[in-house]
Amino acid sequence: MITTAQQTARRLVRQRPFELVRPPKQLYINPYIGRPYVQFYGYAVPHDWLVRFAEKECPEMLPERDDRLYEHDAAVRAYELISAQYGFQLQEFRFCFNPKDGSVPPLWFEAFTAKYFRNGDDEIRATRIDEALVLVLCSELDDSFKERPTQGQVDVMTELVGQPPQWWVGCGVSDYD
User: Average model confidence (pLDDT) for the chain?
Assistant: First the structure.
């Protein structure tokens, strides 16, 4: 027979955040906020994947297909449904750099800032930057890292999304909000 202490211990093990090692801090400082670019742990999910998920799982919650905000609303509904169905609050979606080899080229930091703030020369602003929409489980920042989901929740999300999570470098200026 299982005692109350054993049941409590099992429940605590299930509730413990998954094991994860933080990546080294980014060396590049965002010149507009004076801090390194934030790194996020999560899944790259194409916008159309979110729309299809919402269409399949909660079509009754979506506006008419010809509504100008249909795709935006569908992505938001997918995010909300995933959070509700799988029992944990997803951190958010973030746009992150998506380099082919996993290492963000230094020029991308400068080019993103130039494009976002519409400054810098035309050649830098013309630099192609690959981005991914990332469904965030946690970030490297202390509060977020402490609130990461359990291993069981990560396993369920990985099965749903069809790929494992990874670390991504955020390209937003509001990543510290």
Answer: 83
Predicted TM-score (pTM) of this structure = 0.80
Structural Rg of the chain based on CA atoms: 19
**Amino acid type, 30:** N
Mean pLDDT over residues 41-62, rounded? 94
- Report DSSP letters for 101-124, one per residue: TSS--HHHHHHHHHHHHT-S-HHH
Backbone φ and ψ for 166, nearest 5 degrees, come out as -150, 170
With 80 as the cut, is the pLDDT of residue 139 above it? Answer: yes
Cα 148 to Cα 56: distance, rounded to the nearest angstrom: 27
Residue 37 near residue 106, CB atoms below 8 Å = no
Q: For residue 170, which of 97, 91, 110 has the smallest C-alpha distance?
A: 97
For residues 138 and 39, give the distance between their C-alpha atoms in angstroms, rounded to a whole number: 9
Whole-angstrom Cα distance, residue 150 to residue 109?
A: 32
Element at 52 (helix H, strand E): helix 47-57
* Between 101 and 17, residue with greater pLDDT: 101
Residue 83's pLDDT band, with cuts at 50, 70 and 90, is confident
